[in-house]
Amino acid sequence: MADSLLAREQFNKQAVNFNNWAVTQDERNHRFLYDFFDLAESDRLLDVACGTGAFSVYAGRKIRAVWGVDISEKMVEIAVESAARNGLSNVNFLCCGVERLPFADSSFECVVSKSAFHHLQDCQTVFREMARCCRKLGRVGIQDIVLYGDNRLDSFFEALERKIDLSHNRSLSKEETVELYRQNGLKVTRLFESVSELRFDEYVSHAVQTAEAKEEIRKMISRGLKDTGISRWLVERNGVSYWRRKVLTIAGEKL
């Protein structure tokens, strides 16, 4: 419970920053996810830990109905305003925890979660709920950052993530994510590994930090750029730092 309260408090503080972040509003990625998860006009979509609802709103312009759920009141408030501004009466949002979703079994053709699993304390329970809410032969999809698969790199970057955003719990590995599907009887149908190059100052500003944390982040970046192993993923060009972040996008069918 304490961890959930911390996450909600942090998300409420950074809701506006998160919504204004270019990555949140990247319609190229929304279009990619729409196609990757094989969404269709007749579908009902559940967007779990939807944040400020950017993907929900994008999908809502094209499909029958969307529900988004998130623990943060401020995130949901922005999402509701966005749906109304776009005139989307078929897109609805609820503020609630995601470990127990308030929907009947088999309510949706597609259930997804974007950029959220690294915040979760209990990924197994959340995924099980996602699968429960998905109808038979429907799709369950995740897109999220994942571990690098190197203990030294993962130790450094996971510590950096927690300095940037207190609500970061831990990144899963590709193998752990695939195992969630296997454990819940879903067949993985699509899996795409990619590397996103994020401008570091923009990545930091999507969240909120204390002055002390900002200084610790600055020191970590300085050390990382001088380390030949770490600087493969944390690079500097023309005085600007970029973070090369591993991302996994995965879709599975409920059997």
Structure in words:
By secondary structure, the chain is an alpha/beta fold. It has one domain (2-147, 167-196, 246-254): Vaccinia Virus protein VP39 (Rossmann fold, 3-Layer(aba) Sandwich). The chain has helices at residues 2-20, 27-36, 54-60, 73-85, 123-133, 151-164, 174-183, 200-205, 211-226; strands spanning 44-48, 65-70, 91-95, 108-114, 134-145, 186-199, 234-237, 240-254. Strands 1, 2, 3, 4, 5, 6, 7 and 8 form an 8-stranded mixed sheet that branches. Strand 1 (44-48), helix 3 and strand 2 form a beta-alpha-beta unit. Helix 2 (27-36) packs across helix 3 (54-60). The longest helix is centred in the first third of the chain and has 19 residues, at 2-20.
List the helices and strands and how they pair.
Elements: H1 2-20, H2 27-36, E1 44-48, H3 54-60, E2 65-70, H4 73-85, E3 91-95, E4 108-114, H5 123-133, E5 134-145, H6 151-164, H7 174-183, E6 186-199, H8 200-205, H9 211-226, E7 234-237, E8 240-254
Parallel strand pairs: 1-2, 1-4, 2-3, 4-5
Antiparallel strand pairs: 5-8, 6-8, 7-8
Helix pairs in contact: 1-4, 2-3, 6-9
In terms of structural class, how would the helical and strand content be classed?
alpha/beta
What's the CATH topology name? Rossmann fold
Helix coverage percent: 40-55%
Percentage of residues in DSSP E strands: 25-35%
SS summary, helix count: 9
Q: Count of DSSP E strands?
A: 8
Q: What's the number of domains?
A: 1
- Give the topology string: H per helix, E per strand: HHEHEHEEHEHHEHHEE
Choose one word for the global shape: globular
What is the fourth-level CATH superfamily? Vaccinia Virus protein VP39
State the end-to-end CA separation.
33 Å
Average pLDDT for all residues: 96
* CATH top level class name: Alpha Beta
* Radius of gyration from the alpha-carbon trace, in angstroms: 18 Å
Task: Give unreliable regions as ranges.
Answer: none
- What's the CATH architecture? 3-Layer(aba) Sandwich
